[in-house]
Amino acid sequence: MTDIIYSEAEKTYILHGIQENYREDGRGCEDYRHMEIETGVVSNTTGSARVRLANTDLLVGIKAELGSPSPDNPNCGCIEFFVDCSANATPQFEGRGGEELATEISNVLTRAYSNSTSLDLKSLCIIPKQQCWILYIDVLFLECGGNLFDAASVGVKAALFNTKIPNVTVNQDEDDMEIELSDDPFDVQRIDIKSAPCIVTLSKIGHHHVVDASQKEEACCLARLMMGVTADSTITALKKEGWGSLNPESIFEMMESGKNVGKVLNASLLSLLEDEEKGSKRKTVGFLK
Amino acid sequence: MPVDSKRICGPEITKNPYNFLINGNEKGELIINGKRRDGRKPDQARPLFLRPGLISQAKGSAYIEQNHTKVICAVYGPREVIRKEDFSMKGQITCEFKFATFSCKKKRGHQQDSEEKDYSVQLLEALEPAVQLDKFPKSQVNLYLTVLQNDGSALAASITCASLALAHAGIEMFDLVVGSSVRIHGNEILVDPCEEEEFHSNTNIGVDEGGVVLGLMPSINQISALTSKGELNFDTTSQAVKTCIQNCQKVYPVLQNCLVNSLKEKD
Amino acid sequence: MATSTICVPGQRILRTDDDHISGNGTYTRNGYIYSTLVGYVFTQTNDDGKTIVEVRSSKTQNVVPSEDDIVTARVTNVNARFCKCSILSIGKTKLQEPFRGTLRKEDVRATEKDKVEMYKCFRPGDIIAAQVLSLGDAQSYLLSTSENELGVVIATSETGGTMVPISWCKMQCTKTLSEEFRKVAKVQPQFIEYSS
Amino acid sequence: MAGLELLSDQGFRIDGRRPNELRKIQCRLGVFKQSDGSAYIEQGNTKVLAAVYGPHEVRGSRSKMLHDKVLVNCQYSMATFSTGERKKRPRGDRKSTEMTMHLKQTFDAVILTSLYPRSQIDIYVEVLQSDGGNYCASVNAATLALIDAGIPLKDYVCACSAGFVNDTSIVDISYLEESGGGPELIVATLPKSEQIVFLEMNSRLHEDNLSKVLDVASKGCKDIYEILDRAVREHVSKVSHSLATTD
Hints:
The structure holds four protein chains of four kinds. Chain A is an alpha+beta fold.
């Protein structure tokens, strides 16, 4: 995490607030901050999205490229996560400074998506054992204001929703296969994100836990539990993180609230994306707001 | 990605012969008549062998064997932090987790791949809460884990092994950390899965297929590591976590005994 | 008083009460004393009648330099402002790997600090006894020799012969009888005990 | 010209622009809160974000510190999805390093460096989408970010590219026009004092035409200056207005 140093008094202030279910910005323990999502912001990607969660700002770009499937999984396409922390967010990320955090985030994302139910990877296969789509999902952090994991997962899901892979026809000659790409921008394949997970991070602060911790709250937090939660409230990934430990009861409590929060988060994200799609005449503003 | 320039590498593209198995990826049922393929009951862990102190030049070391899963761990330090960027006033631990190149069905590289790096981080997070870091300010303790043979549950075994090695090295700890893993297969929870039972993201279809790894400090009842993979229902997950905790508590006395015995033997 | 009870990390030793205090190798949590090491439990009664519970491991203790520790170090580099040393042992414990230390000019002696000339106090290769002043910075620990008992203990002359102290600031080579300047330590008997 | 006709007989370019017409420029100052100054610029399909931190204490090794002026530290990186084909690494490759150096040289020349001795100013540029003229957009974005950060400058720095096709100079060339293989001239100027701080030319161009192309590019810089200046004034008036209302 980006380093912030707070005095003990400040930490106690945050801690006491959380005990009363009242956080420094007036939220309750299970409330998210204001989130803005916009899809289709980078025109030369297959799918893209920008998420701004309070002052966490990120851009997700997905590029679909043709490649050969992994030998373990010849009938499926692949997804690859890459996270980059731009030095725009904080000078600490200059050069390779953000790499550690970036790997951590991409590992959690990979973990959340590493099951065959989240995404239908079979639909990305073109010719079994030979050709498939590889989705490069690149997350670029532009500003860090806490809760990067959740924001990244929301961005990924939104960008996947926005992804339009050109349809492909395979012409088979005797032993030669020819792949033809459709250049009609409406003749495209969409990705079903109904069962794609969102990550919910629960930060343990004092004896309570909160979702969507701000940067200040993250500085007070000893341990957190990250959960990949789908709309059906199944769990696709769990990961305890941080240098503290948790007792079993609180883990079960955290999982319970993670499940509930995740369900709402997924539902509202989907309805928002569908609304945006319907009113797609709206001009994209990107960073020009 | 740095390229390994010190070794002469084999051909760039080789294929794993196991891909050509006729039923390569469909392994059939994991449970037949209430028994697992190696004859264990679902809630039965494999026999455990533990031995501290076999690497003499290390400050502490330990070896763990669960049938064919074999892990060795060495602890060095507390020593000075060499890299200036890593400096912190608090004590630090570093973990390097490596599968020996010959340890898995698939050949492993000489350099850490992303899975091994991920395991290193998970190990570190499992152990950090247990170690009294304030006892060695400005210094670091280095842990090196090598999986000599991987037959499933390598991470769980490594957690146990590493905490044993730390205790052997005399690093002050709040408690030992015991690792445990389960495989969730439909309604069944398989304790201590072996390689063919382990969850692989690509082959298993459907909800309630996955795995959970947990690290517990039994005496103070704190969970220091928890990770899961695969899509699981909420209740299954909590059940799996509970099973892991129970299993850790079963292993804990073995760990304690082993340390006590090793101390007795020495005197 | 020693008992033959063996403890492992995380093992509950006993309840804390007014009479028992947790000592080295233990910690208290929720009203109990727990062990942090593999070792034997020792109890000791201190002056005000309380019992200190300790766990001592048979291994050499893991030590890192901390403030006020007396350390033995080898001088590796001398310049006009400070000298660098590598700390070889802390108290009685020999370190497996050295730690870096710095001895600044103003910490060489207690009096006439501004008149210290580093080159007349230390030479690379000297073995010194010093005290840890503070944990210092990222690079090294900060050392001090500003006591009579601290300073150069073992040194060789330019020709390579061993030197013996002839005053608090001079040493003499046993071979060539040439004299060299050093900040000489007035070695205390307990230090000699250490090295034996 | 190979294959593509970059300039039609009617005098229009591929994207429908006239030879001396810039792409649409949209920009915004103060995009982010955490940085001391930030700006976003869109020049057609080229989109660049810039953030400025500082002046602050020199980070890292103290040997970099300059005793008489501020250290200008730049980093140019491109989002992996910014280009047509996916980039493997966002920075650290040769082209990015070169671009970083060019940016540093450019801004060393315009920042009043002697005002902040022994300090450092960071300029981070992130290309979100690239469609030609990355350097120009980066310079323009960084200028706006520096202004947003309140760092004293001699003048705006405006950069613009120009090409030469069919005896006609074309201004602000896009990726397609860049990759056509024709000459490409990139210039960064101080519009008020009409000084050139950076000039680069690739490929072959007849000596006689150089001044023509340069004129077109300098004109482009001045046009960009007008746009940037308007954006800055708007931003400042908006900010001061909101300040006035909050009082």
